[in-house]
Amino acid sequence: MKSLGILLSGRGSNFVAIADSVDAGRIADVRIAVVISNQADAPGIDTARQRGLNASVIPSKGKLREEHDREIVAALKQHNVDLVCLTGYMRLLSPWFVQQFPHRILNIHPSLLPAFPGLEAQEQAFAYGVRVSGCTVHFVDEELDHGAIIVQKTVPVLDGDNEHSLAVRILEQEHIAYTEAINIVLSGNFEILGRRLIRKNSRL
Length: 204
What we know:
By secondary structure, the chain is α/β, with parallel strands linked by helices. 36% of the residues lie in helices and 25% in strands. Helix 1 (13-24) packs across helix 6 (163-187).
């Protein structure tokens, strides 16, 4: 059985979607080994505890990035985590952190990367006037919202949309995309050629 480590800073709606997929068997032979937040008041930590999961707060305030990252990595390795999933984790990972889990850290971003990286992606997309937006699950590397893309989902931008309504519809697709991406990565049936993730079979 594979073990997931979840990192979050807020409510962690994608964490809840992953946990629901694990419980329902949509992600098979997997358990969530630990949920970690850098914020003590993160609602996602309370949710994790209510679900009976191991939940830890490792505060980041006042710490150097790599110092904090070393504490996080120690906790993940203590729980023998196979895959690290960022679900609204509002900290950039140090290159050292990324090197501890090569091609084993996933992040989800509410745009079709490489468009609109960084914060407030839905607002950026709406302001730019795009007709299609969406979400991207990608491997984490040393650069912001940059690693090889695993899954993307498209969401049309409707004439009646505002930033909020677009964000709601993108979030629905995020929950689907993250489960798909976890299954792909844990299957091991892929290779990365340059920036492209190539599936070795089409069973997933």
